Amino acid sequence: MRFPLALSVKIAGHILKHKLRRTPKFALVLQLEPLHTCNLTCTGCGRIREYSTSLKNLVPLEKCLAVADECDAPMVSICGGEPLIYPQIEALVEGLRRQGRIVYICTNGVFMRKKLKDYLAAVHRPEHPADEARLRQLLAEQLIAEADAAIIRRGPEDQRPVIRPSKWLYWNVHVDGLEYTHDLIVEREGVFRECVAAIKLAKRLGYQVATNTTVYRETDVREIEEMFKFFSSLGCDGHTISPGYDYDAAKQDMVKRLGKNPEAFFLTRKMTIEKFAKIEEWGKAFTIFGTPVYQEFLAGKRELTCTAWAIPTYNVQGWKAPCYLMTDTLHSAGHYPTYQEMLTQVDWDRYGVVNGVARDPRCENCMVHCGYDPSGALGTNYQRGDNWKNFKYNFWPRPPAYPADAELTKRVFNGVSIGQGHLAKAKTAAPTSAIPGSNHQGQSSAAALSSSGGARARDLSGTKMAAAKKE
Ligand code: SF4
Ligand code: SF4
Fold first, then answer.
1. Residues 42, 82: contact at Cβ < 8 Å?
2. Most buried residue among 80, 200, 222, 364 by CB atoms closer than 10 A?
3. Residue 363 maps to which CATH number?
4. Same domain, residue pair 384 and 446
């Protein structure tokens, strides 16, 4: 089966329960952001910019569990910020699992191996030959170092819980392309290699792992196909892919401050459809998350109505309205104390695109999964045969893993190793005059990005990508 039976049955049962009760609006996935702190400053990330004044704030553990309980979504995606920085991440995962929820940990991968090693330390039994053999194998594959092995053999340092493999848990690792592109987008060399090592280690230890990719205007979709092949060959259990829609704040900044046309930089609806022309083909070859109905929508074959209330976001300021992307303080309170208040007080008919007309101009180019994927699962724009399509997609066999291929691996690691400076070359190639407001060449790109907001980030990214392609 494409997805574990228990998970598909749980989600189908949740939808059926609410359909029978005629619940008008309910949650399918909670996007829980316990913090917005991050160790990276990725180009195009709106989170660390929109919430730049509350980066140090945390949602207390008890509150995280209470809001999950309140909205009762069967799936919780723990995102951020970087959720592995959250001091009680293990207890949060354990608490959500105790509530019976499917948990996704959306991580940039940098601290993932640390958490996997904590798990190993908790379960390793030095007197067991099989455990020692596993450790030696991980050392041979360079997935852990000798110093790690010594720590693992000593056992856990305290009684804190660890994140254990489970069919109810996925690591969802952010990867936006092959090595060169990914490290450019996340603004740090070596991150792609770390993600690959973390994914390999997680698979060796029996975890489920998915990748999470955003497609930008500069994204070459042939590269995305190579990426799917590679991660499929590593045994990944699925892939989320979504169009990179730029937040309203970034768009306005581009028009007002830079005097530039956002369409020159951001994915419009038309561009999204072009980029996702092969999404259904990818869905057959790889385990792509998202309903086939949503895939048809991305490919431009049908219209869907936004159902952002089905994938609500909770963060340090409350329930974010109307969606993960937009905080609408013009027509709503922006953030609400409870999910029910958000459901009842927001005028949901203001949002989305209907019959080609944007109800709100800020929705015009949005086709992201948090607005439209649930529409496919909920039958919001039902067409004959949709239920069968969704059923078949979920319950039919999973596409086989792509075979390991040394040539493919060479193409995947197309950057340079840590410290060789491909980011430095790209930064030099980006003329400072193209970055209004920047200091001078000595200013670190990460600092420039974090202080300047999304528009300049996209500007710099475009220049960097162009520079990278020329090499
Ligand atoms: S997109 Fe990048 S900067 Fe933003 S939260 Fe994720 S890892 Fe951090
Ligand atoms: S279409 Fe829906 S998900 Fe997209 S920005 Fe508008 S309200 Fe948010």
1. no
2. 80
3. 3.20.20.70
4. no
149: Cα within 13 Å, side-chain hemisphere: 17
Q: For residue 394, what pLDDT band results from cuts at 50, 70 and 90?
A: confident
Residues in the chain: 471
Radius of gyration of the chain (CA): 22
The residues near 31 (Cβ < 8 Å, ≥ 6 apart) are: 77, 79, 311, 312, 313, 314, 324, 370
Of 114, 191, 174, 142, residue with least CA distance to 413: 191
| Same-domain pairing of 363 and 433 | no
Distance CA 235, CA 346 (A): 42
Q: Which residues contact 434 (CB under 8 A, 6 or more apart)?
A: 459, 460, 463
Residue 406 lies in a domain: no
Report whether residue 297 contacts ligand 2, using a CB cutoff of 6 Å: no
Has residue 160 been placed in a domain? yes
The domain tally of the chain equals 2
CA 9 to chain centre: 23
Is pLDDT above 70 for 257?
Answer: no
Domain with 450, as residue range(s), is 422-470
Peptide bond into 81 cis (omega under 30): yes
Query: What does the pLDDT look like over 144-165, one tens digit per residue?
Result: 999 999 999 999 888 889 999 9
The finding on whether 212 has its CB within 6 A of some atom of ligand 1 is no
- Closest residue by CA, ligand 1 atom 5: 81
Q: Ligand 2 in contact with 64 (CB < 6 A)?
A: no
Please give the helix or strand (H or E) that residue 75 lies within, else none.
strand 75-78
Residue 240 and residue 380 share a domain: yes
Residue 249 and residue 46 in contact, taking contact as beta carbons nearer than 8 Å: yes
pLDDT at residue 224, as a whole number = 95
Cα–Cα distance measured from residue 108 to residue 279, given in angstroms and rounded to the nearest whole number: 24
148 belongs to a structural domain: yes
**Residue owning the nearest CA to atom 7 of ligand 2:** 351
Same domain, 372 and 285: yes
Ligand positioned closest to the Cα atom of 360: 2
Token reading at 406: 């040394």
Strand partners for 53: none
Tell whether ligand 1 has an atom less than 6 A from the beta carbon of residue 82: yes
> What is the C-alpha separation between 96 and 68, in angstroms, rounded?
8
**pLDDT per residue as tens digits for the range 395-448:** 888 999 999 999 999 999 988 655 544 455 555 554 433 322 222 222 222 222
